Amino acid sequence: MTFQSLFISSNGISLWASLNPTLKSLCSAIPLPFQLPVQLAPQQAGRLRLDKVAAIYTMYPQVDLAKMDRETLTLLGSACCAMLTLHFTLQLLSQHLFYWKNPKEQKAIVIIILMAPFYAVNSFIGLLDIQGSKPFFTFLDSLKECYEALVIAKFMALMYSYLNISLSKNIVPDGIKGRVIHHSFPISLFMPHTIRLEHHTLQLLKYWTWQFVIIRPVCSILIIILQLLGMYTTWISWTSTIILNISVSMAMYALVIFYHVFAKELAPHKPLAKFMCIKGIVFFCFWQGTALEVLAAVGVIQSHHFWLDVEHIQEAIQNILVILEMVVFSVFQQYAYSVEPYIGTDMAKTKKND
């Protein structure tokens, strides 16, 4: 042979030459998505242009966890956790789509169970761009909180559906009319301590959940605009925080009141487990974020990188914790939002026809 070809294909590196066995096994393990023909002269066959092979191997190294730095391992672990969350959620989602028996209920369930992967992917994006600006992180947090607002409203709609309540059609079962609702402090300062359950009362509870769906996006848009313009002052930050806390508290209060009044009727639907899936995600995200802020303020969280400040490290830790927690919640959702009730409905209809 006067010329011997080194041909790199999508299946790996194939050598048509008298190669050293060790180098041949090394080259065959390097997959590449393109073709690169290299012609080697006889006198070069012994050396095989090791500089080119070394360059290719540097571009496509084999995975060795022991040699990875902490940043790469963190990203790899976070990616695996996010994929696990997606796996468990898509598994449950596919089950509901296969047994699509009650669209009114299952549409709400689909939106609720997508909360965990939404948070996981959102946090992973924040982890990828760890040096992002303050408006960027605010935007990511706002997306999560806006979706949280939608989930709270859909959860209330799901509870209404379980009790066959339809406010648009003015349908309220007689068995639940006239029940007594006891408002606690501080709501009792603005409303009667005891009221009777009527169509108007149910509509008010619905408004209390949906107001957060409106207020949260509006505040987020205003905050991001003011940050980009450099006008986001401390007093504006405190004002927006107070407004949002009051808004989300009203939405959560409406859910708690509704569950307290109808705990017996809702018991077969596992409302507490369903509610804890939502409340747990919100609770952990909020309070661990607050704890990290305190730890950063007292100097426990410090930056040892000149290109990263403490605030960015705090955001990274928060994102990692959220990604890990979403795996747990995606597994718990398998129980709380199980497809079994809809499988049972299908089997009952089959037996009835038989």
UniProtKB/TrEMBL annotation:
Q: Which residues cross the membrane?
A: 73-93, 108-128, 207-229, 235-259, 280-301, 316-337
Q: Got a GO cellular component term for this one?
A: membrane
Keyword Protein transport attributed:
no
- Please report the record's description of how this protein sits within the membrane: Multi-pass membrane protein
Keyword Kinase present in the record's keywords: the answer is no
Q: Which UniProt keywords apply?
A: Membrane, Transmembrane, Transmembrane helix
Q: Enumerate the PANTHER family for this protein.
A: ORGANIC SOLUTE TRANSPORTER-RELATED (PTHR23423)
Q: What is this protein called?
A: Uncharacterized protein
Organism, per UniProt?
Answer: Zingiber officinale
Top-level taxonomy: Eukaryota, Viridiplantae, Streptophyta, Embryophyta, Tracheophyta
